[in-house]
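Exercise 7. Given the components listed, write out the predicted structure of the assembled complex. Treat all entries as one system.
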Amino acid sequence: MRVPLSWLREYVDLPATQTGRDVQEKLITVGLEVETVEQVGAGLKGPLVVGQVLTIEELEGFKKPIRFCTVDVGTANGTGEPQEIVCGARNFAVGDKVVVVLPGAVLPGDFAIAARKTYGHTSHGMICSGDELGMGDDGSGGIIVLTPEHEVGTDAIELLQLVDEVLDIAVTPDRGYALSLRGIARETAIAYGLPLRDPALLDVPAPNAYGYPVEVSDPFACDRFTARTVTGLDPDAQSPIWLKRRLQKAGMRPISLAVDITNYVMLELGQPLHAYDRSRVQGAIGVRRAEPGEKLTTLDGVTRTLDPEDLLITDDRGAIGLAGVMGGANTEIDDTEGTTTEVVIEAAHFDAITIARTARRHKLASEASKRFERGVDPQAAAAAAQRTVDLLVLLAGGTADAGVTEVVAPSAPRTISIPADHPDRVAGVVYGRETVVRRLQEVGCDVYGQDELIVTVPSWRPDMTDPNDLAEEVIRLEGYENVPSTLPKPPAGRGLTDRQRLHRRVGRALAGAGYVEALNYPFIGEHVFDQLGLAADDPKRKVVKLANPLSDEEPALRTTLLPGLLGALRRNDGRGSHDLALFETGLVFHPQDELLVAGRLPVDRRPTDEEIASLTAALPVQPRHAAVVLAGAREQAGWWGKGRPADWADAIQAARSLAAEAGTELVVRAGQYGPWHPGRCASLVVVIDGAEKVIGYAGELHPRVLKALGLPARTSAMELNLDKLEAASSGVPKGPKISTFPVATQDVALVVAREVPHAAVEAALREGAGVLLESLRLFDVYESGEQLGEGRKSLAYALRFRAADRTLTVDEASAARDAAVALAGERTGAVLRS
Amino acid sequence: MSAPNKSYDPVEVEALKPEEIERMRDEALAAFAAADSLDALQEAKVAHTGGTSPLALANREIGALPPQAKAAAGKLVGQARGATSKALAARQTELEADRDARVLVEEAVDVTLPYDRVQAGARHPLTTFMERVADVFVSMGYEVAEGPEVEAEWFNFDALNFTPDHPARQMQDTFFVEGPKGTTGDESGVVLRTHTSPVQARSMLDREPPVYIVCPGRVYRTDELDATHTPVFHQIELLAIDEGLTMADLKGTMDHMVQSLFGSDMKTRLRPNYFPFTEPSAEMDMLCYVCKGTSVGNPDRPCRTCSSEGWIELGGCGMVNPRVLVACGVDPEKYSGFAFGFGIERMLMFRHNVEDMRDMVEGDVRFTRPFGMEI
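Answer.
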């Protein structure tokens, strides 16, 4: 809502010294968000005067038509001689009154005016357009031509009200009344403690039977319809400067006198109005819902197919307007031909939700619908109609018809009852009954009662429905800034949950290992599953889809973190960072087997557990995953020696470190799955409730995937289900018993077939070695056809033996080692390397 | 002690003359002093103190002397050997010190060499900042609550007093999930949560009052990515439900938060606003932590952080609307509460001078690395 300060002053006697900034500050304290104060005409300096065009000489030979004019500006130029001016505009003639800016003046935008040579003449000033004066669009498309009564030499800054301050106020959706000068003036009056001159307090004639006939068939959707008629309008009458200027400053474009007046009254009182050309309305005006398939061409020239829920204004022929949103083209006031001499004025009150839905359905937000959606004062309709009639009579020479139509559905004012100290208890401040009552009265409430207040809310505040609404009025007017600062005392908390702690540890562990976190959008296109090489029946291909995705390329939600993470890797690589280790933890989304609609539960009570379960059943499964991707060098080459490329082992190690953080036993096995290199892929296995469960994969990505996604060679990745990793956790780590007896170390090198996994050999060694084995470490893997035979490899292990209660003898340690080697031989065919 | 020497040998006795012993001693001392390395000293040691050295031989001769000469000779040789071994030890210490000094110099390295063998990792500042904010409240006794990102419309809107026709529910702001066959557009009743507030409703349904929770998380709105907007962003939500909570408690809690995050001289300001799920509602500003308000009306010292407004808009807050309490099974006659929510991205932007929203979403390692493990 744009509010010119000069207009606001009409309703509140603000001290003359108060600037727009002052008013802004005051209004902010009572809760109006005054975003800016526009200084209209800032920097404007005269002389800027009314002139009369004396002569026009058309100059030839230029690319565009140019006129050399002489203009009588009276004595404003100091000489009384005609002013010579070159002008490119063409919408004026000899004898017209225009606005002339003379040398020495400064126009908005720091545009200094001086005599200058142009098109072979010296131009001593300019004939001005509205734009050049910072007036905004006046619809004329050229220079300003004034009506003839203005005297030559008159100061045009004053005449055109070029200097003003305009408050731009962002009105929250609950406060429809603030979309009017009347509403803003009320807040201003309260903020300054000054009386308000309420522009809606007008003498309005009582309704009678002679008014224009109106039939409302849906009194719920339209609980009030006032119709007035004005005849004998001068079709040539134009909006006076003051009217145009107020509309312009408020952000509206002047159109024609009748339309300008309805807009003006809407801005003033908040009541949207509509003026029909009476000669184009046939029969009674009706209000009803649309028929299925009914059509209407609205004022904007668009033909709309109506919905049975749309509320219409009709006449005998059918629809003539979309109620509360926009009029129809068929009864439009004729502002081009200038033939309208009789108008019917509609001031009605429509149901907010009906209007909101229609405006949305037809994507047609108008000044009227904006106000009806937020709530219009139904009691102001008659006054608004009267104000419109008065202005038409005054400005267009019309005659008010004696007929007054008012169709009103009876309704009782709303009352709310609150304890007098309710605002005190909400705010934590003792205001006292007297203050509470006074503040509620200021906003327009009637208040009765002592300890228990019976509050009747004003007709313009449909938002006030609950006790806390009343509390808010008191608290905001007493000043939010005066609410003190106290700290509540919550009961002792239990800190983070184990799960939350794990999520933090996972991030720290990966970052500590050199991974950088990336938080990627969860939007994907399903083609990525082909690029990742997922089987046709892979469950990850079942996605949750968005009804309104930002991009049709990515209409689904991720079922794996890899697409986003690999995208981030590629982006970094493209930007010149080639040695990359990235991680992400986040939700992935799997649709339920059966898609359900999540119902709309009641809000007037706690939903039952069954009702809540029905919502849960309609939501996708949303487990938390963790993933890493790597490419380039894992260790840099440098003065210390060679670097080391990132590879499959790093990816698998990332899984191991997460398992360690979770306190979970992780089994790594050779695996095969979609995106991974079939020979360099590990499946990650945990035991949950006694059953083995694959919770993810790690290793080097498949060369085909790298090609399809444009990724660096040997890019490796790991992804696992963090929720399942956590579920498999063995909980609190147990303190190990430490023996202080000496250690006995034995190394063995075992030759096995190349296919035998280390894990199998290790398991056999551990089992064979028995309780004396303290630890075992693989320290070398060696392959050599020459020395070991084709298809064989040597695994070298360091075994450390120690007893809890004694120093082991060499024989004891050797016996344990031999048992270990023997079992490894039995299980895996391992033989001691000779 | 060897047995008395009865077979007296005059030639050998000659060797035990005092002058001879002194000469042996002096030769040893000279040899030690002349040794310029530990190896040379070792040679000198063998030559002058070893088993076949003159002094050792002389010592052996003592046994062969007549008893009356033994005491004097023993004393003489003993003194000489004492002096010799003392000199040897001294020289040994001296030479070892020399060697150590030399070796340590030789082993000196260029300690300014870089060691970026494995590049440092980092957590995303949005993650760590959310944790930091959450920790402020956890230390006050609040618990961290979580909820799904794909959420039922009822939790996201209805339970929070967003009426069915509230503009925020429309498809221009909210991502709707496709429903079963036969439904279109927004009919599934399932959305990507547009704020962390549904966790409020879930927490009230899950817990008995008093409830003190904080909820950090990811939220979604249908904005295109640009320098100041992203369709996927993060919020942190606070909810307190207890007997007798007031707006003053809300303000005190927020003051405590900004003091914890920005310094003890910080404070907040409430401005009236409107949100369906709170009544009264307020916009929360914090004092500009850079200029502390001194840039207001002071064109000579403009403040970029707050555009010389003196205050920075943080987010929305208010007293939980009793209608929300009812829908979530909390007795509004007995309990009241306050709630607060704000965007993490925005706060990160002004706290850390991040100028472009896109930097926070693109995962560029050059952006994230400097933030390390905690912020």
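Discussion: Chain B is about 40% helix and 15% strand. The first helix of chain B runs from residue 10 to 15.
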